[in-house]
Amino acid sequence: MHTEKYYREHLDEVYEKVLEAVREFVRKQKPSYFCLGLDGWSQFHNGFIGYVAHYLADWKRQKVVIDMLPSNESHTGKELLKLTKEVTDDWDITEKTDVIQRDNAANMLKMFKEEGCPFTDANCLIHTLQIVINHTVLSKASVESLLEMCRALCTHANHSTVFSEKLKEAQVTHMKKLPSETLCLIQDIVTRWNSTYSMGARILLLRPALEHLLIDYPVKDVYFTSRDWELLEQVVTVLKVFWDITLELSKGGTCISITIPCVSIILNQLKLEKVDLSIK
User: Residue 191 carries which DSSP code?
Assistant: First the structure.
């Protein structure tokens, strides 16, 4: 087993070999058109922009990461277009790039409105659904207050070993679970509504245990009224519809052609669910 220093010293060499192998792989398949996925994200206090190329070869879908660049500075639409053209020119696919899928960030929207932009854009449905959820459900004052209480409960459980153990005991006593079947609460991440669904669904699942536990072991600023439980059920019901569609859209073989069916399913499902109109 080599040391970390050894791998760091050989990283650039390995990267260049892999890069050339990927280029040769794409060249041999001679695709006529490309669709790109463009995404920006941050991790460990650093920003990145990634480019994924999608194309057909012998009627089989191919997906290749063609670049990932550091992005620690704010990029205007014009600068982002310049950066994107540098990537596509480097791979000699600018004229073959048909559509670029993007999120709804303002600079990405402006990029495709820049004069001389040779690309057509398509927005990311998953990101759009997240915006819909945030604007129509999670931003409501009553829901925000409820979710803050849920987060306070989960945070307390994560920091208190006593509370966590008592929660397991309560599940055994009041939910007839075996010790090996007990569950923990799930802390959500505010910027990801999918995890908010997981948090709410888990709290509802453990309601019988929590109602008894919170009497003997109260948590500051956490008190669920009957109305709170009803509201949480409404929120989780709505989020569940979007959760299912997001899982479907996240599959490796997903195609843009399922956009309209997915939206239709969401609308029809929300009509079938008995959801309060003020939440839906």
Answer: T
Model confidence at 217, in pLDDT bands (50, 70, 90)?
very high
DSSP symbols for 194-229:
HHHHHHHHHHHHTHHHHHHHHHHS-BTTB---HHHH
Residue 257 pLDDT class (50, 70, 90 cuts):
confident
* pLDDT over threshold 50, residue 277: no
| Residue position matching structure tokens 């402006």 | 110
In 39-105, which residue ranges form alpha helices assigned H by DSSP?
Answer: 77-90
pLDDT digits (tens, 9 = 90+) for 9-41: 888 899 899 999 999 999 999 999 999 998 877
Q: Average pLDDT, whole number, for the chain?
A: 89
pLDDT score of 274 more than 80: no
* Residue 103: DSSP 8-state: -
Is-contact 55 27, C-beta < 8 A? no
How far is it, in rounded angstroms, from Cα 123 to Cα 71?
Answer: 21
Residues 140 and 278: their CA atoms lie apart, in Å, by 9
Residue 77 makes CB contacts below 8 A (sequence gap 6+) with: 107, 108, 109, 110, 111, 112, 113, 114
pTM (whole model) above 0.85: no
Q: Whole-angstrom Cα distance, residue 81 to residue 75?
A: 9
Q: Find the helix or strand (DSSP H, E) in which 97 lies.
A: strand 97-102
Q: How many helices (H) and strands (E) does the chain have?
A: 10, 5
Furthest C-alpha separation in the chain:
68
* Angstrom distances, CA of residue 20 to CA of 50, 58, 253: 18, 22, 26
Cα 168 to Cα 16, 119, 159, 207, 232: the distances in Å are 52, 55, 15, 12, 22
